[in-house]
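User: My advisor asked me to double-check a structure prediction for Flagellar P-ring protein before group meeting. I don't want to rely on an old file, so could you generate it fresh from this sequence?
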Amino acid sequence: MRWALRLLVALILMPGLAAAAPVRIKDLATVDGVRGNDLLGYGIVVGLNGTGDSLRNAPYTEEMLGGLLERLGVNVTGESFRPKNVAAVMVTGTLPPFARAGGQIDVTVAAIGDAKSLLGGTLVMTPLSAADGEIYAVAQGSIIAGGASAQGDAASVVQGVPTSGHIPSGARVEREVDFDFSRMSSFRLALRSADFTTAARIEKAINDDFGTGIATLMDATTILVDSARLGAVNPARLVGRIENILVQPESRARVVVDHRSGTIVMGEDVRISRVAVSQGNLTLRVRETPMVSQPNPFAPGETVVVPRTDVEITQEPGIGFAEVSGESSLSDVVEGLNALGVRPRELIDILKAVHAAGALHAEFIVN
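Assistant: Sure, here is a fresh prediction for Flagellar P-ring protein from the sequence you gave:
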């Protein structure tokens, strides 16, 4: 397993493979204003197998269930009912751009009470509102829970997260967002990652493709496209042509470290100045082995506990000083770090020390 991981890392860091390949503009930028809208709703799930809310701890579930039955013509005023197959949930989704009435979107359902599982439940008709308070979709359907749970008298087991799930195509769009893209005489491209070099290359690639200066660089994130210069042209067709233009992206030098898994990922442009590194481990071990001392039978005296402590200090020989030369290629940097012969987690500490010494010329990100 270890050799496979090393092979994968080596392939990722090989200069030939690490070189940035041309990327479509649609993968680097979005059209400003063409975005989704978050939806939120509060609903109720029925049909659970005794894993719903305990209504004593979640009175809002009982109130909502009573209101639902009242609207259906069932009079429950003054009645005492405490079903275990009902749960209150939050329903979330995203209304995609240009969504039309009658279209369907996916929604996520999550319990907000003390329900044990939503497995097998059905969401009852739930209106979904946006930030403006208007209802844009209505959700309903069977929930696909993301886990399972089982419980007995003395033990229980939970796998995954059974208190949340998804309903594919579970909401139907009832209201459209008023946005007429066809009448726009200009639009802006917004880069997902701000970079002046990449933005300038996108401007040049668009102007070269159309043979006219319709694109103007505004800042590190924004390129303005003036479609009016092309005459009577459909903006949607123009965007469809622009988003498939290939551009060589540029990115900052980064070193990303994940302490939990011991993963280290380096970008192609990472550079390390010439530096010498020494690494070794110091282990301090303290063992307590108390001894009980007691007198002979029927002899005077008392039983006492005599403490006994063993202290041991172990220092590994380490690697001495190893030189990491500041060459221009990433493969030389990796070769120099591998020459230290340390484990990944120890290499993380070395990179942190090299960064603190000012010899690591990259953005150092620790997760």
